[in-house]
Amino acid sequence: MLNEITDRIEKLEHDHKQLKYQNLENNKLPEKIDEDIQRLNRLKFRIQNKVENEQNTNFKTAEIKENDVDDLKDTRRIKKEKKDKSLDIKNETENESGQWMDNSKSVLLKGVNQDQFRRYELAYDRVKDFYRQQHEKQTVAYNIQARINFKTKVRDRMSVWDALVKLNKLLDESDPDTELSQIDHALQTAEAIRRDKKPRWFQCVGLIHDLGKLLYFYDAQGQWDVVGDTFPVGCRFSKNIIYYDYFKENPDYKNPLYNTKYGIYSPHCGLKNVMLSWGHDEYMYNLAKEQSILPPEGLAMIRYHSFYPWHREGAYKYLMSEEDKKSLKIVQTFNPYDLYSKSDIRYSVDELKPYYLELIDEFFPNKLVEF
Ligand SMILES: [Fe+2]
Ligand SMILES: [Fe+2]
């Protein structure tokens, strides 16, 4: 079912590339976009009717029982996997992957106390308020609309460096670990990757991975649709998502179309077919896919870096394809640099600027990027 929605969005994107919207007179543009949105809504209702027709009266009870068993199995499996996790990752990265995925000699990881990060039990009220809003408002309907908004206009044109400078005005309300500025975080991440002698594309990802937070200055309704951990919408929310209880106020939580294990997806359909909650990861991934020459590994890091329920907690494995197994290791290679590089060390922006300007030029061929 999601394939249909994805195809429809792809079609919109294709039409957009064909200058469909640009060729319209200004007064016809809202009408055309509205027409497309209505077509998507009709599609959504068709899907909903189809699923409802297939359900019989005993379905709900059976489903609840099935879900409880699934939860239990999931929790047991995740516990077991966590136990062996560090050993598994080390062996797999050494045996199957490129050298750049080996973090065992990381300078960063040697000096860091990993227990000091993501301590949500000690989080400020602003973090809890943020997640209350995010969990209540990230619905399938909102996510479809956000993607339509994204695909149908260009918000700004500027260089990547200017975008980083612009982003510096944002304080991320979802982050319990740091109140440093965004440019400090971008440089800390990139510098930690560079110090560990990772490839230049990897360093570039470190620098720009959060650049999608620019969304906050354009179409966002708050911070809840820009930052924070991400998760799939359109299927049951995992209990491994931080502050899970706040989902009880999300309309999709009670919607039989979206609250089953697979919801609108099918087993092992692949994460590329899954709609992750809209925010800076999805936004930047889409920009970088079109406008950079970063390799697929770098794009995976950007798209999934906030998907903690998956890359850290081991949830949603039943949606993964074979290809996603590789992506998981890739994202886990990136994650320590994003998380553990947060410190009070401030780099000199002026001193580092020439190095990173050159790096940006290497992977973003056009001087101006369309945001
Ligand atoms: Fe991020
Ligand atoms: Fe980050």
What does this 3D model show about the protein?
With 371 residues, this protein is mainly α. It folds into 2 domains: 1-54; 105-370, no CATH class. It contains 14 helices and 2 strands. A two-stranded antiparallel ribbon has the order 1-2. α8 (182-195) packs antiparallel against α9 (200-208), α9 (200-208) crosses α14 (349-363) and α11 crosses α13. The protein is globular and about 55 Å long. The model is unreliable at 56-64 and 86-96 (pLDDT under 50). Residues 209-210, 280, 305-306 line the site of one fe (ii) ion (FE2).
Separation, N- and C-terminal Cα atoms: 29 Å
Ligands bound to this protein structure: fe (ii) ion
Largest sheet: 2 strands, antiparallel
Secondary structure: helix percent: 40-55%
Strand percent estimate: under 5%
